[in-house]
Here is the input.
Amino acid sequence: ICLCRRVSDRDIARHARAGMSFEDVQFELGVATQCGQCEGCAREIVAQCNLAHPQAALHADHAPDNAAPWLSSLA
Here is the structure.
């Protein structure tokens, strides 16, 4: 995808599936920071991967009684 930084679509997808936004992927991999030709495609990959693997929200008030003690600090 990004010829300037040698970043593949798989690299972008892997980071996006880990919950990273486009800006996070851009910072981590350097995609779309030089000529900019790959930005549209990279954004599309991130959007598709984020839709396919939405992040679950973690709320301490819905945690079971036997949940880890650190969950109470999230409230």
Notes: Helices lie at 9-17, 22-29, 39-52.
